[in-house]
Protein 1
Amino acid sequence: MNYNNLILNFENEIAIIKINRPKALNALNKETLEELDLAITDLDKNDKIKTVIISGEGKKAFVAGADISEMKSMNVKEAKDFSLLGNQVFNKIENSTKIFIAAVNGYALGGGCELALACDIRIAAKGAKFGQPEINLGIIPGFGGTQRLTKVIGKSQALELILTGDNIDAEEAKILKLVNQIVEVEDIMEKAKLIAEKIAKKSAPIISTAKEAVNFALEHPSAEGSKFEANLFSTCFSTKDQKEGMQAFLNNRKADFKNE
Ligand code: CO8
């Protein structure tokens, strides 16, 4: 499949998606979101892939937001459809059985910050900037930002970013737990791949089960979460990989998971 606005590469069990509109700082227009939707749907069905890295092409931006030139003349219905499309794509990332790593190589503003937030792990380059500047355009975040940012950094920090429209640098984002790690920009893909490779060595059904269990915590009270966890935990024992993992430990060797 050829994409106009994405570059998709594969390295063993890792897929690497780069948003490829560097002249517009990788702004997300409708076509890019539709391509991302297709790519993620395909990857989700691909048994060979365990982790997906998302980054931005070029030196300056991860994604500088939704495409303002495309949004400017939208009417209310078009704006809602656009918002729903973005939410659909980002929900697919969040609910995917694959583990998504955002390699934030530069500006992650508006829809770009929201894309990073939908990923499971976020690595930032030293010079990266995060923010929800929609307020300066007379709108609010529309690709899940009001929801995910609040869950990740808490209500008052989220509201400060959303209401002031201020950008923050990678160091501040790390303090707010918006990013896991900060690395030099030239090392960001290597770092993301290291994490992706480490995860890809584990069992596919077990990593997706772990993601499902952690995601559940964000939406449900602890009592329900404990029951859900016990159910998912016990399903691990129906896999060959659980047997292999425990046998390998007892035999003092590395587990050779078959993803079954
Ligand atoms: N949309 C469209 N084009 C963009 C965007 C964008 N978000 N960001 C940058 N560009 C374009 C510029 O227009 C410029 O194009 P050209 O060269 O043709 O003039 C090119 O990229 C380079 O940008 P700059 O010259 O501005 O580069 P600077 O280094 O001076 O500045 C910034 C970089 C600070 C990142 C600046 O470009 C900027 O502020 N960009 C906009 C950031 C922003 O406001 N993002 C939020 C957008 S709104 C959003 O994401 C809402 C998501 C939910 C939508 C819900 C649907 C209804």
Protein 2
Amino acid sequence: MEIKRISVIGAGQMGSGIAQTGAQAGLDVTLVDMAEAPLQKGLERIKGNLQRDVQKGKISVQEMEAVLGRIRPVLKLEEAAAEADLVIEAVVENMEVKADVFRKLDVLCPKHAILASNTSSLPITEIAAVTKRPEKVIGMHFMNPVPVMKLVEVIRGLQTADEVFAAVEQLAKRMGKVPVEVNDFPGFVSNRVLMPMINEAIYAVYEGVATPEAVDQVMKLGMNHPMGPLTLADFIGLDTCLYIMEILYEGFGDSKYRPCPLLRKYVKAGWLGRKSGRGFYTYE
Ligand code: CAA
Ligand code: NAD
């Protein structure tokens, strides 16, 4: 199952990073978003990352141009789906939205195409069930920032075929990543472990135990985390953090996963972290 052409759905922080990393690995990439503004923003982010690599002497200007030349931006899902060997969906963390995208992809993509989701926590088996090719649906969970982080969690849905798993594992390696196999349970491994820690850090602020700065200092200097949990929550996006906590809470039915009310409040206020300019911290 050779994968030459991939399509990435959603040009947000994850989709743009996946598109960049795929193009740097020599793949032809089609990047789609639903509107011109987010598509352009995604392309600008990719250009910015590559220009930084040029300035650091890691790649030449010609290499940067070749990578950019392998990324085809489009606004229509039909165009992205038509010739793809593999599609990686990276739209918002919401089952209804993802199900709608997968239903359309199932109709539009070639029969051999693998449909992967970059979901942080939603059940792959449930996403697969809206298609007529559940054996070709799989989770391919990249970490943020994609060009830097080595891990790809590869999630087997209940019906994912072995050859599909093998093809995706191979592709992750080609993209310079280390694939780790996990089964399909809420939050998989990464967010089952990470997100309750972030949620607990938010509770510490909510209950007045310490300021966000103090909580982050404790975890950075005391536990050697590269970013404190609240800086990381702002970086991931507080809306995404809340979606993930809700999926853990609903999926396990255990009160230990209840999202902190302060997280809900910030998301309701539109304080989504770095991407909206304000979260636990403010950004330019
Ligand atoms: N995009 C691309 N490259 C980036 C980047 C970005 N947003 N941010 C930093 N980099 C690159 C820099 O260019 C630099 O590259 P070189 O080594 O080639 O110079 C390298 O990363 C290190 O950057 P800095 O020296 O500026 O900063 P740093 O040492 O603080 O590292 C970091 C930045 C890698 C982001 C680091 O802070 C880190 O590892 N943070 C934690 C990230 C993390 O936990 N990610 C997982 C989030 S959870 C998730 O993704 C799953 C989910 O479903 C929510
Ligand atoms: P984001 O908000 O930065 O980007 C989402 C993009 O999808 C936006 O540009 C939006 O316009 C686009 N979009 C929405 N609906 C669409 C549709 N129907 N068709 C085409 N484009 C559409 O979000 P993100 O942080 O990139 O997260 C995307 C996915 O990746 C989520 O499932 C998230 O859980 C997952 N994820 C996020 C992180 C993280 O740290 N942020 C890490 C790993 C996985």
